[in-house]
Design brief:
It contains 16 helices and 13 strands. By secondary structure, it is α/β, with parallel strands linked by helices. The strands form three sheets. It has an eight-stranded parallel barrel, surrounded by five helices. It has a three-stranded mixed sheet with strand order 6-8-9. Beta-D-glucopyranose binds next to loops.
């Protein structure tokens, strides 16, 4: 047994993390332009002003993908590059850039997956209250319409939102991401509702305008790994995975608040009892809009937490990792089983074809004396995770694909350029790209549809 024959193998990036050209060709400002230029927000004062200069080097990057056998590429659109004010007048040069990129991909035989929003929110809309504004879903719908009309002839795969947990939770809850606010629940909970309405409106709009479209959604959440195979621990993991908290800085980091409405048509009871009081008046009437059929449910999964049954008010507790448990460069625990239990529990609840839209490892890679980048730890990470994902597929999860994060090293948000997630090394001074060893290994995995894992 292995992955299905039409399994989607590929790699992913996001606009602000790679494009650069932050103030060129009519692009409007976004909250990350503002946040990175304010002191003390990002490691080393780094910005995405230039990043990987993909805006100018995209042809070379597509050629690299072709060479490495990448058949599917997920990238995001910069809303403010297309609509400098977030709404209203379109910046034709922004549309031209994405058209050229898409044409290049299609000519290289690479299937484009567009993420409509991966965190770089237009500053002009931030000034109008961003997702607190009841009009905000309509702004997103209008932006979606422009993208659907401009790119929908060649692009059939769309993802509405990337990780609302992060752009709401980190952007407006804990404040460690742009725009850096720490707002109370009566602000962030309504925001979450507006994001969900925006998601539903966007799915409807894409279906209306793009014949043959396949639409997905890419939230995240640390997977849960039962401490043992006992039914009690598995149930504890399930309960914990779909639980919802109410800490103003951290509540957004849950799965069910963001996914149940979109797929099951209701907020989870665990969340409603704590957060329902903060939802905007009349929220119930939006549930039909929010719950639109999806072609696939995507998740970005990097790690998991171990859970066991407990005799406490929650019915579960977390188990600490043993001292010295392996970690990545940004201090994330390495937990391959997250790619078994995550997809398994998510598929069990949502029953929607499942895509890993991001998974990968940060490391402190360097170019060696031989001019190559040897990253056996990343290869080992991917190997272990992919084996678990394959086990989930063999166990009945309708696993449709895996997109590695990331195609190339890039701007890692609040960490700046501190660590590297790429399969391709980027020298940020010269913009020289060097394919890492892990990419040569991944090429074979893709070619053999994971038979060699
Ligand atoms: C995000 C990416 C990010 C990656 C590694 C995900 O949370 O979607 O933009 O670079 O994880 O942190």
């Amino acid at each position: 047994m292995s992955f299905r024959k039409d399994f989607i193998w590929g790699a992913a990036t996001a606009s602000y993390q790679i494009e650069g050209a932050a103030f060129e060709d009519g692009k409007g400002r976004n909250v990350w332009d503002d946040f990175t230029h304010a002191k003390g927000n990002v490691f080393g004062g780094h910005t995405g002003d230039v990043a990987c200069d993909h805006y100018h080097l995209f042809k070379q990057d597509v050629a690299l993908m072709k060479e490495m056998g990448v058949k599917n590429y997920r990238f995001s659109l910069s809303w403010a590059r297309i609509l400098p004010e977030g709404t209203g007048a379109v910046n034709q040069k922004g549309i031209d850039f994405y058209n050229a990129l898409i044409d290049e991909l299609v000519a290289a035989g690479i299937r484009p997956f567009i993420t409509l929003f991966h965190w770089d929110y237009p500053s002009a809309l931030q000034a109008k209250g961003a997702w607190t504004n009841p009009e905000s879903p309509k702004w997103f719908e209008a932006y979606t319409e422009i993208c659907a009309r401009a790119f929908g002839d060649r692009v059939k795969d769309f993802i509405t939102f990337n990780e609302p947990q992060c752009f709401i939770g980190l952007g407006y809850g804990s404040g460690v991401h742009a725009p850096g606010y720490r707002l109370p629940l009566n602000a962030t909970v309504p925001m979450s509702h507006h994001v969900l309405v925006a998601h539903g409106l966007a799915v409807k709009k894409l279906r209306e305008l793009v014949p043959g479209v396949r639409v997905g959604y890419a939230p995240c959440g640390d997977a849960r790994i039962p401490a043992s195979d006992s039914p009690a621990d598995i149930e504890a993991a399930r309960k914990s995975y779909f639980d919802v908290g109410d800490d103003p800085a951290g509540w957004a980091f849950n799965v069910s608040w963001w996914s149940d409405p979109a797929i099951l048509g209701c907020y989870p009871e665990a969340g409603l009892s704590k957060l329902g009081q903060y939802l905007p008046d009349g929220w119930e009437k939006d549930m039909e809009t929010i719950c639109q059929p999806l072609d696939f449910y995507a998740q970005n999964i990097y790690n998991g937490r171990i859970v066991k049954a407990a005799d406490n008010e929650y019915g579960y507790e977390f188990v600490d990792f043993e001292p010295g448990h392996p970690k990545t460069a940004i201090q994330w625990f390495i937990t391959p089983e997250a790619l078994y239990w995550g997809p398994k529990l998510l598929y069990e609840r949502y029953k929607t074809p499942f895509l890993i839209s991001e998974n990968g490892m940060s490391a402190h890679d360097a170019v060696s004396l031989d001019g190559k980048v040897h990253d056996p730890n990343r290869q080992d990470y991917m190997h272990r995770y992919l084996r678990e994902y394959k086990r989930a597929a063999e166990d009945g999860v309708d696993a449709i694909g895996y997109l590695a994060w990331s195609l190339m090293d890039n701007f890692e948000w609040a960490f700046g350029y501190f660590d590297r997630f790429g399969l391709v090394y980027v020298d940020y001074t010269t913009q020289k790209r060097t394919i890492k060893d892990s990419f040569y290994w991944y090429k074979e995995v893709m070619e053999q549809n994971g038979e060699n894992l």
